[in-house]
């Protein structure tokens, strides 16, 4: 977030408890979202990748997060233990943030057709798409009868062929479809399920994609607003969807990308 950004404080999340996954460092999108939720009164638990404790604990301390549990989402036993830790501490939860993705570096470059392996494809699908289904089921089981709200993070590489995004684009397409099916199943229980689709942002995940810096620059120059996607905007969208402001919105994929996804071709290209 910009150094001079005044985080909107308030009570939109007062009395709400929930889980935020995917905080790895201060650049993580999950961290921007967690800060904004905490500034609106949310009580948060972090589920983080094992081995990240030294980086995650100081961030947790900064916003008063007292419940932390390590989890690799491909490990069913670790998932059981992590959700139990939150259940023991909170009882019920009102919201869940899924901000997890992974694909082998070798598959995030060059030709999708030539470089995609069975092992890499299934690994990306498992961590980036199936984990959402698994988390949604476990989170919904901890939500009260009044319902709750679940979000995940996706990228426009699911809808269009973006250079080097490759296997991750296919996993994100599965993730977005999973959001719609989960929204259908959980809707009668008052649980809303949505995806936020930011433009490229400077995080660890972006660094794993060949030409990640180019994705940032192109995202900016090809966007309607000619600017980078802001953490403030992404966190604000998450706050809307996770608070009662988001009532009646479910199954959606909301783009927060300075208008990157609406553009056809550029003025220069139009002139030939
Ligand atoms: P990040 O690297 O900070 O976050 C990714 C997180 O996934 C990390 O915290 C990592 O520990 C976690 N993770 C990976 N494998 C895991 C596993 N097996 N078990 C548990 N956790 C695991 O990067 P980010 O950019 O903040 O990514 C968060 C989400 O936002 C991802 O879904 C990403 O695809 C999405 N997204 C990112 C961008 C971008 O440009 N950075 C744009 C749109 C969407």
From TrEMBL:
Active site, UniProt feature: 155, 165
Pathway: Lipid metabolism; fatty acid biosynthesis
Binding of substrate, residues: 103
Catalytic function, reaction form: a 2,3-saturated acyl-[ACP] + NAD(+) = a (2E)-enoyl-[ACP] + NADH + H(+)
GO molecular function, one term: enoyl-[acyl-carrier-protein] reductase (NADH) activity
Enzyme's top EC category: oxidoreductase
Residues that coordinate or bind NAD(+): 22, 28-29, 72-73, 100, 172
EC code: 1.3.1.9
Keywords carried by this UniProt record: Fatty acid biosynthesis, Fatty acid metabolism, Lipid biosynthesis, Lipid metabolism, NAD, Oxidoreductase
Keyword Phosphoprotein: no
GO BP term, example: fatty acid biosynthetic process
Similarity remark: Belongs to the short-chain dehydrogenases/reductases (SDR) family. FabI subfamily.
Protein name: Enoyl-[acyl-carrier-protein] reductase [NADH]
Native source organism of the sequence: Phenylobacterium zucineum (strain HLK1)
């Amino acid at each position: 977030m910009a150094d001079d950004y005044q985080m909107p404080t308030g009570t939109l999340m007062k009395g709400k408890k929930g889980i935020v996954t995917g905080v790895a460092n201060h650049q993580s999108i999950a961290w921007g979202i967690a800060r904004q939720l905490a500034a609106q009164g949310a009580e948060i638990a972090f589920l983080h990748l094992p081995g990240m404790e030294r980086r995650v604990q100081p961030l947790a301390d900064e916003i008063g997060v007292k419940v932390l549990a390590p989890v690799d989402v491909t490990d069913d036993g670790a998932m059981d233990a992590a959700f139990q830790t939150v259940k023991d501490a909170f009882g019920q939860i009102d919201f869940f943030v899924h901000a997890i993705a992974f694909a082998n570096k070798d598959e995030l470059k060059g030709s999708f057709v030539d470089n995609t392996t069975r092992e890499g494809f299934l690994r990306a699908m498992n961590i980036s798409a199936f984990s959402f289904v698994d988390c949604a089921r476990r989170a919904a089981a901890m939500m009260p009868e009044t319902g709750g709200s679940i979000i995940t993070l996706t990228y426009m590489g699911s809808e269009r062929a973006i250079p080097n995004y490759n296997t991750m684009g296919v996993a994100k397409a599965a993730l977005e479809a999973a959001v719609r099916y989960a929204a259908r199943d959980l809707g009668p229980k008052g649980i809303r399920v949505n995806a936020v689709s930011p433009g490229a942002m400077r995080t660890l995940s972006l660094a794993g994609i060949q030409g990640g810096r180019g994705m940032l620059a192109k995202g900016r120059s090809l966007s309607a607003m000619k600017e980078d996607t802001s953490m403030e905007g992404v966190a604000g969208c998450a706050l809307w969807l996770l608070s009662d402001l988001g009532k009646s919105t479910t199954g959606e994929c909301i783009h927060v990308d300075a208008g990157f996804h609406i553009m056809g071709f550029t003025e220069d290209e139009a002139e030939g």
